[in-house]
Amino acid sequence: MSRSLTRCARLGALALAAALLAALPARAEVRPFVAGSLAAIEAGRSGKPFIAAFWSADCTHCPGELKALGELSRRYPALDIVLIATDSPAAAPLLARLAESYGLGRQEQWVFADQQSERLRFEIDRRWYGELPRSYFYDRQHRRQGRSGIVPAGQLETWAAEHVK
After folding, report:
1. Please, which pLDDT band fits residue 34 given cuts at 50, 70 and 90?
2. Who has the most CB within 10 Å: 13, 14, 30, 60?
3. Would you tell me the crossing angle of helices 62-75 and 153-163 to the nearest 10 degrees?
4. How far apart are alpha carbons 6 and 89 in whole angstroms?
5. Based on the number of CB atoms within 10 Å of its own CB, is 157 exposed (0-12), middle (13-18) or buried (19 or more)?
6. Is the pLDDT of residue 71 over 80?
7. Are the beta carbons of 131 and 148 closer than 8 angstroms?
């Protein structure tokens, strides 16, 4: 009888460990952002609002923006945020850790993977010259509004309240 209790206790412990691991936030894979990636991101979200947030590990103002987006994501769990770093693919592990530290580890993540980043920026927005942070707010019809610099928390909240259901 002692053996069967021990076996049950072990199985129970394994089940508990599996449940705890499943509850941990998964770290998103950092995908290579190349020509056509933005079109793929948009197509995969047809009819759905989302925020595309461009940032860099070296950007002075990006931590403030990422922190605000992480807080917004906690208040609006259905909010879809796509993080696109303008760094190189070699920085992917660092980028994933930084995103996770701001509560954005489960959001889709990309990193520029073209040696000519100007070409990617031109494809994203012909009027964007690389200033960071840069955010694009897509409504359900995928009309987008671009914004450079830190977006005030009140504006983020207003947008999320209006677009995230």
Report:
1. very high
2. 30
3. 40
4. 48
5. middle
6. yes
7. yes
In a domain, 118, yes or no: yes
Where helices occur in the chain by DSSP H, the ranges are 2-23, 37-43, 62-75, 92-101, 117-124, 153-163
The model's pLDDT over 11-28, given as tens digits with 9 standing for 90+, comes to: 444 343 333 333 334 557
Each residue of 85-135: pLDDT tens digit? 999 999 999 999 999 999 999 999 999 999 999 999 999 999 999 999 999
Question: Is 18 contained in some domain?
Answer: no
Instruction: Work out the number of other CB atoms within 10 angstroms of the CB of residue 69.
Output: 27
- Stronger pLDDT, 25 or 54, i.e. the higher one: 54
Facing residues of 145 across strands?
A: 137
Would you call 1 exposed, middle or buried from its count of C-beta atoms within 10 A (0-12, 13-18, 19+)? Answer: exposed
Number of domains in the chain: 1
Structural domain containing residue 136: 26-163
For residue 88, is it within any domain?
yes
Residue 4 lies in a domain: no
Instruction: Report CA-CA distances (Å) from 31 to 84, 91, 123, 141, 164.
Output: 9, 11, 18, 25, 25
Please report, for the domain that includes residue 131, its CATH number: 3.40.30.10
- For the entire predicted model, the pTM comes to 0.83
